[in-house]
Each structure stands twice: as structure tokens, then as C-alpha cells.
Design a protein that fits this description.
Elements: E1 6-10, E2 25-29, H1 35-98, H2 101-105
Antiparallel strand pairs: 1-2
């Protein structure tokens, strides 16, 4: 078990004039960290910084996946729109042909025979 002791060390106030709102004593702890503890602390700080970097990187990739999904949805809707435009053109052209002067001059056949 390690005990902590605090020693009282008078500051430079004894050699200099004591000023208002200045500390006149410093407290120093006798507990100091060794090289192993410093290495462990540095490793922990590097690990925490690495985790922060990874969380930021995964957020950007998540946004990238979402944007990619929206782009594919947009391309599907553009393709569907072009198909509907073609279908609309076909349907309106049939109506124009039926209403033309040539189509109105035609007669309907009496019977229709199909090849078997």
C-alpha cells in the first residue's frame, strides 16, 4: 500500500514581496509516475485518439452509403420516367391516328379471319 504525503514548501514569497491574491505556499506530492506508467498513459491516449478517428471515419462512410442509395433510387426513377414518356407518346399517337382524315375514311371489315 502506498501512502501519499504532502510537504509544505514556502514559495518565493519569502524572497520577494507578498502581493495581493498571490499564493504564498506550494504543495508538492511525493508520488511520481515511473516510465512504465508514462508508457501506459501514452498508449491509452493514442488508443482514445484512434477510436475518435475511427468513429469520425465510419460516420462519413455511413453518409456515403446513404448518398449512394439515393443516387440509385434517382437513376431508377429517371428510367421509369423515360419509359412513361415513351408510353405516353405511343398512346397519344394512336389517338391522333384514329382522329386523322385518313382513318375516318376507312371502313370496318365485316368479318375477321385469323390464321391457325
Amino acid at each position: 500500500m502506498q501512502t501519499r504525503t504532502t510537504t509544505f514548501t514556502p514559495s518565493r514569497a519569502t524572497t520577494q514581496a507578498i502581493r495581493r491574491n498571490q499564493n504564498t505556499a506550494r504543495f508538492r506530492t511525493q508520488t511520481k509516475l515511473g516510465p512504465v506508467a508514462h508508457t501506459v498513459l501514452v498508449a491509452l491516449m493514442v488508443t482514445v485518439l484512434g477510436l475518435i478517428y475511427l468513429t469520425q471515419a465510419t460516420k462519413t462512410t455511413a453518409y456515403s452509403y446513404e448518398a449512394q442509395g439515393l443516387d440509385s433510387e434517382i437513376s431508377e426513377l429517371v428510367a421509369k420516367k423515360s419509359e412513361l414518356e415513351v408510353q405516353n407518346a405511343r398512346l397519344t399517337s394512336l389517338e391522333k391516328v384514329k382522329g386523322s382524315a385518313v382513318a375516318s375514311a376507312m371502313t370496318t371489315p365485316e368479318t375477321t379471319n385469323y390464321a391457325k
